[in-house]
Amino acid sequence: MAFYKSTRLDSLRYEIRGPVYEKALELEAQGYKILKLNIGNPAPFGFDAPDEIIHDMIVNIRDAQGYSDSRGLFAARKAVMHYTQSIGIPGVGIDDVYIGNGVSELILLTMQALLDDQDEVLIPSPDYPLWTTSVALAGGKPVHYICDEESDWNPDIQDIERKITRRTKAIVLINPNNPTGAVYSKDVLTRIARIAEEHQLMLFSDEIYDKILYDGAVHYPMGTLATDTLCLTFGGLSKNYRAAGFRGGWLILSGAKYKAKSYIEGLNLLASLRLCGNVPAQFAIQTALGGYQSINDLVIPSGRLYQQMQFIYDRITSIPGITCVKPKGALYLFPKLDLKRFSFANDEQFIYELLVNERVLLVPGTGFNYGKDDHFRIVTLPPIEQLNLAANRIENFLLNGSEKKAVLEPQEVTPLA
Length: 417
Known about the structure:
This protein is of the alpha/beta class. The chain has 2 domains: 7-47 and 297-412, Aspartate Aminotransferase, domain 1 (Alpha-Beta Complex), CATH 3.90.1150.10; 51-289, Type I PLP-dependent aspartate aminotransferase-like (Major domain) (Aspartate Aminotransferase, domain 2), CATH 3.40.640. The protein has helices at residues 19-29, 51-59, 74-87, 102-114, 129-137, 157-162, 186-198, 261-273, 279-289, 295-299, 304-317, 347-358, 384-399, and strands at residues 35-36, 97-101, 120-125, 141-148, 154-155, 168-174, 202-206, 230-236, 248-255, 322-323, 332-333, 336-337, 360-361, 363-364, 376-379. It has an 8-stranded mixed beta sheet. Helix 7 (186-198) links the parallel strand 6 (168-174) and strand 7 (202-206). The longest helix has 16 residues, at 384-399. It is globular, with a radius of gyration of 22 Å.
């Protein structure tokens, strides 16, 4: 007798660590060095968490041996509550804050608490694919609304309205956006908030990059704009505080909580069933949210994150056949490849052949549930030297790829000098 995976997994993808990533691991096992620009993991590129965070985790480690309250340590939740006050989200109490094992766990938990089979959730396209996956795993139906490249990747408001049905339960926002780097205007966010309130839809706002902003971009928390429906805001330690491996995330409930008594009961039940979030990381949250915000030094024009973003944007858009909307936030570029100029059938073929021939690992745009097959994502975390090397290899590959190249088998790849 054979054992089979759940059919709920059949249509799910996570290309950030998908088949091309597996090919990269295979090449590494054969001794080839891969330039990895596929995942937003700060630590491998020399972005360390602030010393104060590490210190407080060490000092409190003996007090982290037991379970915490299922919603999280009091001090951690109170720190998040105070943070909501500083950014203007009204009416958040300590019981409106949940601490989880990163935002990823909290996304899964919130969808499981909400959805019945075939309930619909509106998700941006392109999206961070965990959102689509979480809706499907909870039995729901992901429905993707358009983010318009011609409008700096802002959501298409009319497309959102067109796709609302009697089964629609919620609208998801990712702001600042992964993978496009868009930061939404107050007007766009306000219009989406009014649509959600008019149709009594919940709002899920992924704001994990809310402090990673460039060139004067301003982040407006959705919780400050939505008052007549339930708004769930997600944040954490992984990006702003360069502590992705600590798995410390938080969920904030705001807005019309009185309309969501049953849903909140479901959240509390699921939070209890997983016992609690990672306790050592919870001791870092109060330290992270209070005091000096070191991320500010990294995103100003003299900061490393800004300079790397600017460099790879300038470098990649200088390559004939590639265009890109300049990111206003987050840690990524989402360039467009002119498929009429090159022989690649689609983004997946380009990404695969680039890896095998040039040992550069990127992610195809279709891996972010984008309907067009001519984009790819570049992580801007590597130092400029690595970004330049990657850009040189991409340019070399494209300028020598006007005729379709045969994909080399791994044993035929010649190591770089």
